[in-house]
Q: What sequence folds into this?
């Protein structure tokens, strides 16, 4: 998958799947993030061996990883991870992080939409996102995308500083979402022909 998109302010961004050649640029992206942003990441991605692990996951097909690139620089990373467990094969977990300078410009929504399309073609029926309570922007964007807050587990995770945080789990039923979109388009078509 490879797509050129234009942000709300006219900047051109290339969204494409990650390959091994992106390892150094990907590492540079994570190293450029603030301590605060890195505090909520599941893995300590500033270590080269963790980036190598991420590349291997892509090559093994257990994740789909999209990068957003501007002038050869990685500015966002979006992941859809498939469960290895047989009884959860229809479930994908989504993760998304945008460079602070590119936030609130519509890129998060564009990346999430591309991951949704890839999830649908991989026959994923449901997408989960997990976040810690202080990640307010994340809750806001996923609500906008049709996710619902399902579970709050108090003090369930520790951030990179060792602080306990509530974990919030949101889910999105892709089948219901496609149906809603089809109904919406059909209603629009009816209104246009009336
Ligand atoms: C969450 C995140 C991915 C959003 O990316 P983004 O590119 O800024 O999002 P968009 O510009 O596409 O915003 C889409 C909508 O989400 C909501 N939103 C995004 N950031 C928000 C914020 N800081 N406060 C409130 N609402 C916000 C808004 O409704 C926004 O629409 P609007 O700008 O028209 O009001 C980004 O803030 C980020 O990388 N955060 C750190 C990592 C993280 O929390 N990842 C999610 C956990 S998996």
A:
């Amino acid at each position: 998958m490879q797509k050129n998109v234009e942000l709300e302010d006219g900047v051109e961004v290339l969204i494409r799947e990650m390959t091994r050649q992106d390892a150094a640029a990907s590492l540079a992206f994570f190293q450029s993030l603030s301590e605060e942003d890195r505090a909520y990441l599941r893995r300590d991605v500033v270590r080269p061996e963790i980036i190598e692990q991420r590349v291997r996951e892509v090559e093994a097909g257990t994740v789909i990883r999209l990068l957003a690139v501007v002038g050869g620089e990685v500015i966002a990373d979006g992941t859809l991870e498939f469960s290895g467990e047989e009884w959860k094969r229809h479930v994908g977990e989504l993760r998304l992080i945008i460079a602070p300078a590119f936030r609130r410009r519509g890129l998060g929504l564009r990346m999430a939409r591309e991951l949704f399309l890839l999830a649908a073609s991989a026959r994923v029926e449901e997408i989960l996102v997990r976040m810690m309570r202080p990640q307010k922007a994340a809750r806001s964007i996923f609500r906008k995308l049709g996710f619902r807050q399902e579970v709050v587990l108090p003090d369930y995770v520790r951030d990179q500083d060792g602080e306990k945080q509530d974990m919030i789990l949101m889910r999105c039923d892709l089948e219901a979402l496609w149906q809603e979109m089809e109904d919406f388009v059909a209603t629009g078509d009816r209104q246009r022909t009336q």
